[in-house]
User: Which sequence fits this backbone?
């Protein structure tokens, strides 16, 4: 690099080669950024718009070739017909109860576990952490039958005796829907990473002031990892709300079924009733959209801090 | 190694069922529990993959089960609805935990695996003769010569074609063998500017497994030996049944990329194919989406050496471990009766399994269903081995490797035969 002065500045500091000022270049750059983001936003939003529009189309409109963007006839009755096909209000209530329960339990237990793994020194903590990391790698479907058997043979529930015999255990109950999968290793991992970043002086000062370990976790450290809580809450709620296979396997009555299982009624072996499916899906998506809009600031920050996408 | 949740669950479920039976109060083998004599009463569960759609629940519970309860007021039926894609998982977990539903719907090809595991109870032979069935229809209901299920609805894979395109091309008859099919497909293929805008033949709009099986049977091939212990599809007939698709792709008259997308009208409706493999439910779709094409679409049964139509469908069977076997048997008999079969068929545009129903208003008003019923003597079914649930999941991905050019048809069939032999060897 000899002979080149990297610190030398151009004599023209206010105008570029085509005569634009830095402010003008910034505006141009910002405009280009907005255009790019606008295009990406449109790409992301179009499937949702398409879903809503499909939910308002007649079968003939859905089959139109080439496809039409807007319905030629707005079939608002699709929503009423879809809702009449099954007890969707019951399904939605069940999904809400399960999603809220999962979210609450996961936030509480996983944050405590994450805090303990990040801030407390105890024998075997590294091994426990490695156990959680290993648990992240177990495919969901490999756990289904063992989990199902645990649920079915749960002692002293559903007519089972102390040895888990004679009844149905937790099957077709809230226990089966809520307890398995309520705490995820991913959430523990995420909380640990957040708690690790906090300065040690905070907890030391709190200890000197006589604050209990539970108090340090609840009053000193946890308020500083709010993005982690929002992120875990949204991810847990979303995965719980969208869960299909497990609720299908462990329930058999309509009163315990969830929204995603309910929606599957519109997918038949020979055909799919797209208008009804999209109407039901639109309604099922609404809570997630509202939740995201409410927590988007923290959600994005949480993802940025955790380095996940 | 290909891994799917269904194949995993099947292997795990069927494999662990016997081990878990020791923990269960009701043994999956439960042969003694399935005695159907005694009072028809009690609570039973019905695992149901039929009666889907917006009107399905009302059809079953508001209509059929009311009729059943009028006859058997002391039986309380709880219906456990599932989609067909998750039916195997539901049965497998039920079997593994010793809680098989009392009455289950099963697909064609599923009887040997579940009868072999003694998960379902044999039915008296008299039920096979109380109504008129084509023997081909009852074949998949049997295992080792014993009846285990009653067929309810059939879904046949047939060939549909555009009469107007045939007329434009001056083609007067439908192809009678594969050579004719290739020639006709080439004739019907349309290219504009070097790009194919209409393929002569679309075999890829139905499941590749079922399409290949249709061609295999049409070429006088077989999947397995009669006892289900020997693979027979790795014959020259089996390889040729896959090679024909590659040949037609090489001709330019078939294209893996030209098939019906989910939610879209079929390629036949869109005019991007002239002949396609389809399901008899196409007629209902035409009525809803493209009524102007109803008269322009015809059907035929294709074969090379032996015309064959693949018969899928849903059967109803009784658990071998039901605590109320008489009630379960009564429900199986009711669901296999003409009234229930007709209602179920009509609700989903399927073919009723009972031949006596060919004169019904529904069949007469649906030409594709009527066509399928008329040709049931040419119907062939998949399955035939107790290892079928494990093998069936592997067929499509293995055949696709040949379609996309990763290996030859011979290599794909050999690989599939290896997978099937391994699965049978584990029985």
Assistant:
């Amino acid at each position: 690099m000899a002979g080149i002065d990297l610190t030398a500045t151009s004599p023209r500091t206010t105008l570029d080669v085509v005569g634009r000022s830095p402010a003008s270049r910034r505006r141009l750059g910002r405009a280009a950024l907005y255009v790019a983001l606008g295009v990406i936003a449109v790409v992301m939003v179009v499937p949702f718009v398409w879903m809503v529009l499909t939910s308002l189309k007649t079968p003939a409109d859905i089959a139109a070739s080439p496809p039409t963007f807007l319905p030629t006839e707005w079939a608002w009755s699709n929503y009423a017909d879809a809702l009449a096909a099954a007890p969707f209000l019951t399904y939605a209530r069940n999904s809400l109860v399960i999603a809220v329960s999962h979210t609450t339990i996961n936030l509480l237990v996983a944050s405590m576990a994450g805090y303990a793994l990040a801030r407390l020194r105890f024998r075997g903590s590294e091994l426990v952490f490695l156990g959680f990391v290993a648990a992240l790698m177990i495919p969901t479907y490999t756990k289904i039958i063992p989990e199902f058997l645990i649920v079915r043979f749960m002692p002293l529930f559903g007519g089972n005796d102390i040895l888990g015999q004679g009844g149905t255990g937790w099957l077709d109950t809230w226990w089966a829907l809520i307890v398995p999968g309520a705490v995820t290793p991913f959430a523990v991992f995420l909380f640990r990473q957040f708690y690790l970043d906090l300065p040690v002086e905070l907890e030391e000062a709190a200890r000197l002031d006589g604050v209990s370990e539970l108090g340090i976790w609840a009053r000193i450290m946890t308020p500083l990892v709010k993005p982690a809580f929002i992120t875990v809450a949204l991810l847990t709620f979303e995965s719980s709300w969208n869960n299909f296979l497990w609720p299908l396997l462990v329930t058999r009555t309509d009163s315990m079924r969830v929204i995603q299982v309910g929606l599957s009624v519109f997918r038949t072996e020979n055909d799919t009733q797209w208008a009804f499916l999209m109407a039901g899906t639109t309604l099922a998506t609404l809570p997630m959209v509202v939740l995201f809009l409410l927590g988007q600031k923290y959600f994005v920050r949480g993802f940025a801090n955790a380095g996940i996408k | 190694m290909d891994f799917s949740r269904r194949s995993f669950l099947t292997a795990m479920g069927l494999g662990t069922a016997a081990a878990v039976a020791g923990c269960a109060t009701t043994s999956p083998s439960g042969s003694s529990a399935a005695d159907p004599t005694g009072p028809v009463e009690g609570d039973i569960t019905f695992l149901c993959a039929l009666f889907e759609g917006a009107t399905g629940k009302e059809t079953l519970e508001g209509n059929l089960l009311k009729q059943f309860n009028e006859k058997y007021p002391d039986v309380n039926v709880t219906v456990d609805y599932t989609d067909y894609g998750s039916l195997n998982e539901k049965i497998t977990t039920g079997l593994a935990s010793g809680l098989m539903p009392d009455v289950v719907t099963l697909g064609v090809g599923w009887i040997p695996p579940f009868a072999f595991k003694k998960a379902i109870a044999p039915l008296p032979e008299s039920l096979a003769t109380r109504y008129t069935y084509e023997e081909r229809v009852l074949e998949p209901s049997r295992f080792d010569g014993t009846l285990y299920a009653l067929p309810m609805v059939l879904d046949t894979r047939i060939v549909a074609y555009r009469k107007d395109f045939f007329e434009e091309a001056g083609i007067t008859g439908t192809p009678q063998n594969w050579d004719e099919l290739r020639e006709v497909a080439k004739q019907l293929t349309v290219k504009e500017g070097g790009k194919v805008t209409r393929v002569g033949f679309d075999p890829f709009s139905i499941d590749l497994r079922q399409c290949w099986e249709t061609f295999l049977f049409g070429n006088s091939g077989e999947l397995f030996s009669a006892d289900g212990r020997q693979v027979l599809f790795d014959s020259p007939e089996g390889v040729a049944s896959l090679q024909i698709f590659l040949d037609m792709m090489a001709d330019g008259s078939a294209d893996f990329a030209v098939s019906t997308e989910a939610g879209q009208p079929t390629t036949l409706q869109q005019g991007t194919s002239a002949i396609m493999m389809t399901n008899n439910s196409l007629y209902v779709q035409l009525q809803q989406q493209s009524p102007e094409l109803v008269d322009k679409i015809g059907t035929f049964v294709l074969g090379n050496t032996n015309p064959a139509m693949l018969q899928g469908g849903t059967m109803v069977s009784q658990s071998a471990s039901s605590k109320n076997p008489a009630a379960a048997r009564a429900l199986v008999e009711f669901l296999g009766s003409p009234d229930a079969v007709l209602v179920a068929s009509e609700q989903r545009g399927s073919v009723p399994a009972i031949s006596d129903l060919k004169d019904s208003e529904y069949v007469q008003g649906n030409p594709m269903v009527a066509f399928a019923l008329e040709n049931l003597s040419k119907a062939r079914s998949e399955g035939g081995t107790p290892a079928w649930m494990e093998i069936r999941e592997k067929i499509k991905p293995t055949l696709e490797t040949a379609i996309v050019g990763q290996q030859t048809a011979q290599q794909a069939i050999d690989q599939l035969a290896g997978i099937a032999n391994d699965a049978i060897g584990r029985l």
Summary: Confidence is low (pLDDT under 50) at residues 17-33 of chain B. Chain B touches chain A through 54 residues (CB under 8 Å).
